[in-house]
Design brief:
With 372 residues, the protein is of the alpha/beta class. The chain is built from 16 helices and 13 strands. The protein has a 7-stranded parallel beta sheet. Strands 10-9-8-11-12-13 form a 6-stranded parallel beta sheet, sandwiched between helices. Strand 11 (275-278), helix 12 and strand 12 form a beta-alpha-beta unit. The protein is elongated and about 70 Å long.
């Protein structure tokens, strides 16, 4: 029986993004193995392997992870290894060196956003770029999910013979297989202390420096004071330990900025919203924007890798310069004042999202998996 191994640093990466691909292999006669540093049961996985991957490149556990995973790979003799996450992929490709030669194991790596990009700190380029360039020689197929990373890899990673562009991991339409009546939408708004007349912006993302919510809140404070019915929903885990909530209180915006924590009903929250916002400093290919496109929300997003792949100025929303307060306020105001403009962006997003649906991404990936 043919065997495939998926690797990532943590369980959640596999659970969130790759279960449909495990299902494909399982249904096509493969024995499916998954290696992470966690203990979760993964759907369609025949064998779960715990490897002490660490996210930090400076942790000695990664040396142990290489040794342990190398033994697994040499013993199992996989036909395909598909690796994900930065350190997970470094460990996996080093561990698979012998098997690529002896067992003809094919190593596929999906980079979900290089740590080096336009505007990244110099340290990122000094630390991560040489490693990725070196390991590209030992990568049979390198998959990039945004145009900036793809173009860089094509220019610089000459020793990788097969570089492919696949736009993301796919939006699963099953998540949106629901209908909400006007009454249900109103009830959800009421549960968040919002009325039917409120104008709702949403930014589903972890609270972090990279997602840049601090700048966003400071930027819209005067707009909210001018239009008190404007509200911002911020569903997502807090990685800043209450810093943004303190800022919100200092600015007297507690009634308009809503910190929702981790939520499992993002599609429904999108359905009651008027605009999707992203103030991120960098992305791979952001799922939050793709899901907003599926719903048909106009999007206002900062100009960074990933965001600019999905949002085209004045077509389905607006791309604004990083940290440009005047621009984000002006664009929110434009959509707030102009329902026809909002409807135009809605129509475009519902058309554009087709390329990013799971069923189409799965077709792209199957072609890659079946390459000789």
């Amino acid at each position: 029986m043919k065997k495939v191994l998926f690797t990532a640093t943590v369980d959640s990466h596999i659970e969130l993004f790759h279960v449909p691909f495990l299902k494909y292999f399982k249904e096509n006669g493969y024995e499916v193995h998954v290696a992470t540093n966690g203990d979760n049961d993964i759907p369609y996985c025949d064998k779960k392997i715990k490897i002490p991957f660490e996210r930090s490149p400076f942790k000695s556990n990664n040396l142990k992870a290489i040794k342990n995973l190398k033994n697994v790979i040499n013993n199992e003799q996989y036909d395909i290894i598909h690796t994900h996450t930065p350190m997970g992929s470094v460990v996996t490709r080093l561990a698979a060196l012998k098997s690529r030669k002896q067992n003809k194991t094919r190593v596929i790596y999906t980079a979900h956003g290089f740590h080096f990009f336009k505007g990244a700190p110099l340290l990122n380029w000094l630390l991560f770029y040489p490693v990725e360039k070196f390991l590209s020689k030992y990568t049979d197929t390198l998959i990039l999910i945004n145009k900036e990373d793809y173009n860089l890899a094509k220019r610089k990673f000459k020793k990788c013979k097969n570089i492919q562009y696949v736009p993301g991991v796919g939006i699963d339409e099953a998540k949106f297989n629901f209908t909400m009546s006007n009454e249900e939408k109103l009830n959800l708004r009421k549960s968040l202390k919002l009325s039917n007349n409120d104008f709702i912006m949403i930014y589903p993302a972890e609270l972090s420096n990279r997602k840049n919510q601090e700048w966003l809140i400071k930027s819209i404070k005067d707009l909210i004071k001018k239009y008190p019915n404007i509200h911002l929903l911020l569903p997502g885990r807090d990685n800043l330990y209450g810093k943004i909530q303190i800022l919100t209180k200092q600015l007297n915006l507690e009634n308009n900025i809503h910190f929702l924590g981790f939520r499992k009903d993002i599609p429904k929250l999108l359905s009651i919203s008027d605009i999707a916002i992203s103030s991120s400093k960098q992305e791979g290919l952001p799922v939050n924007i793709m899901e907003a496109m599926y719903i048909g929300l106009p999007i206002i997003a900062t100009d960074c890798r990933g965001n600019s792949d999905l949002v085209i100025n004045d077509k389905n929303g607006y791309i604004i310069p990083q940290n440009n307060t005047n621009e984000i306020v002006n664009k929110i105001n434009l959509i707030y004042q102009n329902p026809k403009l909002k409807n135009k962006f809605t129509d475009e997003n519902k058309k554009d999202i087709n390329r990013y649906l799971l069923k189409n991404i799965l077709k792209d990936m199957i072609k890659i998996y079946e390459e000789k």
